[in-house]
Prior knowledge:
Among the domains are: 116-308, Metalloproteases ("zincins"), catalytic domain (Zincin-like), CATH 3.30.2010; 460-551, Leucine-rich Repeat Variant (Alpha Horseshoe). Helix 2 packs across helix 9 (237-261). The chain is mainly alpha-helical. The protein has helices spanning 3-31, 38-61, 83-92, 112-141, 150-163, 192-197, 200-215, 218-231, 237-261, 265-279, 297-306, 316-333, 356-359, 363-376, 382-395, 401-406, 413-425, 432-438, 444-454, 464-468, 475-488, 494-497, 506-519, 522-531, 537-549, and strands spanning 69-71, 145-146, 170-174, 181-183, 187-191, 336-338.
Amino acid sequence: MRADLISALTDWLLTYWVHATVLLAAAAALARLRVLSFAARDLLWKCALVGPLFSATAHSLVVSLPSERLSVAPMVAAAADPAPVAVERAVVGADAARSVGAPLIGTPRDWRGEFLVAWAGIAAVLLFGLAARRARLMHRIGRRRQVGDAQLRDLLETLCLAAGYPHYVRLTAAPGLASPVALPGREICLPEAVVTELGREQQRGVLAHELAHVVRRDPLWLGVAQVMERLFFLQPLNWLARRELQVTAEYVCDDWAAHQVGSGLPLARCLLTVAEWIAGATGPLPEPAMASRGSHLMRRVERLVRGDGIRADHGRRIGFALGALMVAATMVAAPAVTAGVPATRLAPVKHLSAGKHERQSSDSSRAARVAALVAALKDSDPGVRAAAAQALGRLDDKSAGNALAELLRDPDPEVQEQAIMALAELEDPRAVPGLEKLLTSGDAEVRQEAANRLGNVDLATAPAALINALKDPNSEVRQAAANSLGNIDDQKAVPALVPLLNDPDKDVQEATVNALHNIGGPAAMQALIGALKSKDPQVRRMAAEALGDRD
């Protein structure tokens, strides 16, 4: 999987987790308000369940949102002098250096790929368990037969006409069923006892209740909630949303049925009868069952007897308005989350510069280490050669430049790459052709590091490959290219930098402002004046400060 895709998926999942926490917690708090009807709570929970999918995606696709980013990139302390570690790997411990990609001290692992693999594996197991559970339930129901009672069929068709529901609803019965249930595919499945033991008024109440589930697409919503509960298993509030949707659906369907029948009494009596059937059943029940175990049965019966829910869909507009407002507020105000980019295999020069003067105090020891590493550049093992080149770059000793330049023709591509990076660390121009080639790598992290290193080399003109990197699909690469062009200070880079003032990534916008400020000149100043109209207040502020620093 490509690095930029891994980064995008990880950021989306983390953003989803934050937004889902905000929305579901808000829905839980609002649902406790007794002034909200069950119809309002039902829509509120639905918005909170699916809203994070849209808000997280919006942060990935929309050009500019005013919320801030929350970074969870690992913070590590760089080693005071990592060169001895590299010496030990290159000279003493050849076996330890065979995997050049292994992180050095102060370099965190890129955990994002492993995180996605683990996430996908666990989600797949949970989804498979859900599918197996449904298969067992359908097997337990047994073979379903079409209901042949013409009067019962007429009752259902009359209810469909009264409700204005234009679709055909299949009516079946099953011997292994203890409670009426609405199934996917516009099907109402009844226990045999409903056909043989209940009177017409009670049958009408049962059909009205189950038809409400069909009209509201409750089987579909329940399936979506169960899938999300398992797919996004790290968000435990999805379990709460699924449970609350099941509860509110039963109350809303009671109200809908009472409204269609004209009274809640037949349905109330039917609920008590079905509860007796369920009490004698064993094993799990299909969902949504009419009077499943653990439901608020007595409260539902009392509401139906009192006629509290006779006005169907009461409060739906309030619930939808609250839910839409919550999603919009989350989309605008909740932060996007980024996993950040862990340090690459070679730490940037700026993280090591603080220790340079201290290392220069032990010249004899330093010379011995450099000599040992230069000798290790000819080791027969490519892993040792690569590790030695890496260590020489960290030691920042220009006397090793010629030896490193010889590795540019090394038969191992990884050794060549480490030699190029080390020469760039020494600010040796011989690294430029190799760095330009690395800017075409399929690995986004390699392209980013190559762009960073070109900014370290003392160049009078900007390489064309570095300017082209401003159009890279990966935002970190574009940001690194902009920073390096600001260090090179070449006027011909200004036209290519200007479009990045409107880049979808805020960090790229800020890097572009800094680069234009460093380059200067009439074209750069005109671009900074245009940046004062940016949608991002941080970019406008930086542009104003940059304009104030120039004569």
